[in-house]
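B., you asked whether I could sanity-check this one before it goes into the benchmark set. Here's the sequence:
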Amino acid sequence: MSAPHPFKSRFAETHPDVLLLDPSDHAGIETYLLGSNLIAAGERPSRIESAGSGNMNLTLRVTLADRTLILKQGRPWVEKYDHIEAPWERTLIEGSFYQAVRRVPAVAGRMPELLALDERHHILALSDAGSGGDFTTMYADRQVTDAGLNDLLDWLAALGRVAITERERDHFANRAMRALNHEHIFRLPLASGNGLDLDQITQGLARAAEDLQGDVAYVARVGALGSRYLEDGASLVHGDYFPGSWIKAEDGIRIIDPEFCFLGAREFDYGVMLAHLAIARTAVEGAQRVLAAAHHEGLDESLVLNFAGTEIMRRLIGVAQLPLAHTLGDKLRLLEVSRSLLLSPEKDLGCW
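And here's what the prediction gave me:
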């Protein structure tokens, strides 16, 4: 078993009063659940396991006799890459998102229920959205049904109706998480000498990344979009609206992981969704429905296309890789789609 990263060790030493959940310490987790009144004295977890394959947080599924629940703890580092620091307050902001969307049942009804928000230890307790898995399988099978697209687009439309009070605005600015996301979406992938060994992922991809890094117009447009992303706005945005945040439930799709939420441009969520339909190589009709939905909401379709192009790029040549079996040819074509969406949005989906 590898030793913890020095950053994690220092945090444990300087914050001895903070409970860091240990997936292997079932007795300790049971004690926490009892002390937090999340289970009754007679209940005992029969199983504690990882819930999902997310990068950012420790997320556990706790199985009880007649129900399951989710414990999610964000620590001051990225769980999968514990040498990368991450804003510790993200768990509290995510908890606030769950509280805010209760005002619009069409949003809250497709999300887990917030059972408890532990502000001391930065732990969320959530109802279980189901063990059916997420939609990252669509990268292989290209499948998202018409009903699924309806669910996803209806949820985004409803999210646009969530009103945030003046008192909540500073909290939902979520500037530290936006700065982290900005680095990994808009800057790092196009920084030459960024240390990413893309040829270890797909041979020949490094050369394609170098070509994009040398495209002055492309880099400038991505930089301008990054500035737009950092601008504050009036609308609540999920911030990471991709297939890993869409869960398969018996009665439709559930939406999870709003820790990157912020008040800003709604076009960002639509653009990210559109990008992942492109990466999954779904039919153009699905993409057209996303743009039509954005138009119906009165959004800037060119900005949606621009954000989609950036998301495609960062998922192919950035740190946050996806479970793809794509060939180099597939990826090169997607990077050309990215270039068109960013530099020629007036061509709409002609590049699809």
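One thing to flag: The chain has 14 helices and nine strands. Otherwise nothing jumped out at me.
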